[in-house]
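Page 47, continued from p. 46.
Same chain as before, 69 aa.
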Amino acid sequence: DEDYTSKMLRAIVAFELRVLDLQCTLKLNQHRPESHAALHAAYRAGSADAQALAQWMETLGMVKNASFP
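Result:
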């Protein structure tokens, strides 16, 4: 119905939001340190994206004695 559509279009309003705070939550494999090393090794041997994740795990201190080439 054209009248209905016309009424609905008039009801659309624009607005802006200003972001005041942004929070990030990180969760990789349920915080099980025993599995971090195995996953890390698999990521390091994987694709470029997987290797980037392995490096990120190192940066976050999720794996001990790890160094990325």
